[in-house]
Amino acid sequence: MPKLDRYLFSEFTQSFLAALMVLLIVSMGGLLVDVLGDVANGKLPAGLLLSQLGLATVQFLPLILSLALMLGLMLAIARLYRDSEMAVLTSIGVGPRRLLRPLLLLVVPIVAIVATVSLWAGPLSLRTSQAMIDNANRSLILAGLEPGQFTVLSNGGVVYVNGMSSDGTRLSKVFMQRQQGDRLDVVTAKTGHMYFEGETSRFLKLEDGYRVEGPAGDGKDYRMMRYASNEVALPDGSDKKTQDDPELLPTSQLLGDARPEANAQLQTRITPPLLCLAFALLTLPLARSAPRQSRYGRVMLGFLGYLVAFLMMINGSQWLANGKLPGALGLWWLSLPLLALGVWAYLRDGRLSRPKGARA
Predict the structure, then answer these.
(1) Can you give the three-state secondary structure of 218-261, one letter per residue?
(2) In the UniProt record, does the keyword Cell inner membrane occur (predicted)?
(3) Sequence-distant (≥ 6) Cβ neighbours of residue 169 within 8 angstroms
(4) Higher pLDDT, 219 or 206
C-alpha cells in the first residue's frame, strides 16, 4: 500500500473508531434506560438485563455503524482541508478522487458488516431475545422470585418463598404482603404455582393458606380467612410477538412472503447498507471547505441529512406495511437516488480539482 494511502486510511479509521465509541456509549445508555424500565415494571427479569442490552445493541448496529462511518469520514476529510493538507496534496496533483482508494478500504468492510447485521445477525438477535424472555416468563426463578429471599414486585407487593422446584414452576411456604390504598393484605400459602392467561398475563395460584386483610395504620378492623385456592396477579410479561411476525422471520423467508408487512420488513433490512454506502460517498463533497474553516457546520449538515434519510426510511416502511406505497416500489425511491447523488457528487468534486495528466 502506498504511503499516502496508508496515511489516509489510518486517519479515516481512527476518526471512525472515535465516532463509533461515542455513538455506542450514547446508544447503549438509551437502551439501558429502556431495559431498566422493563425490569422495574416487572416485564423483564433482572437476570436478563445484560443479555437483553447486548442483543438490543446488535439490532441497532446497522444504524450506529452507518452514522459513525459518515461522521468519522467527514471529520477526517474536513480536518485535511482545515489544516491545508488537501491544498498541499492538490498542488502536487492529488485531488479528491485520489481519496477514494483509502476511503473504500474502510467503507467496503463496514458496508459488508452493516449488510450482515441488517440481513442476518439483527433478526437472529431479536429471535434470541424473544425466546429468552418467553422462557423467563414461564419460570418463577427468572421472573424474580428466589427461595429464601424477599422479592419486591413492581406493584409494591412483597413476596417470600421458602422453597422452589428445580424448574422454577412450583413453590412452597409462601408469604405475600400487598397494600391497596389504606388496606393491607397479607397472604400465606402452603404451596403455589404460576400459570398464564393469554400471551402476557401471569398469575400466581396459591393453595391451602390464610389471608388477613385490614387497615394499613392503626385500627382493629381485621379479617382472617382460610382458603383452598387464591390467585394473585403478577406483573404482565413483555409483549409477545407471534411466530409469523415479519420482524422475527429470517430474511430468506421474507423473500417469498407476499404480505405487505413482510415486504416492508425486507426493505427495512436491505436499505441500511445502501444508505451507508451512499452517505460514505457523499462525505467527500460535503466535507470540502476552505483552509482554517470550522468543520463542524458541515458535519452537522451531514448529520441532519442522515437523520432525514433515516426518518424517511421508517415512514416509508410504515407506508409499505399499510399498503400506502406499491410493494414493487419498496424503499428503492430512497436508497437509489441517494446512491446516484453520492456517485455524481463524488465524480463532480473530483473533476474540479484533479488536473489532466496528474499522477497520484
Answers:
(1) CCCCCEEEEEEEEEEEECCCCCCCCCCCCCCCCHHHHCCCCCHH
(2) yes
(3) 138, 139, 140, 193, 194
(4) 206
pTM over cut 0.85:
no
Can you tell me which residue has the cell 447486548? 54
Residue 320: pLDDT over 50: yes
Q: What Rg value do the Cα atoms of the chain yield, rounded?
A: 29
% of the chain residues with pLDDT over 90: 33
Q: What is the pLDDT of residue 358?
A: 47
Residue 196, all three cell numbers: 398464564
| Mean pLDDT, rounded, for 57-74 | 93
Closest by CA to 164, choosing from 189, 143, 146, is 146
CB atoms within 10 A of CB 63: 20
The span from the CA of 319 to the CA of 208, in Å, is 55
Strands 150-152 and 158-164: antiparallel
**Most distant pair of Cα atoms in the chain: their distance:** 101
User: Is the alpha carbon torsion for 154, 155, 158, 160 positive or negative?
Assistant: negative
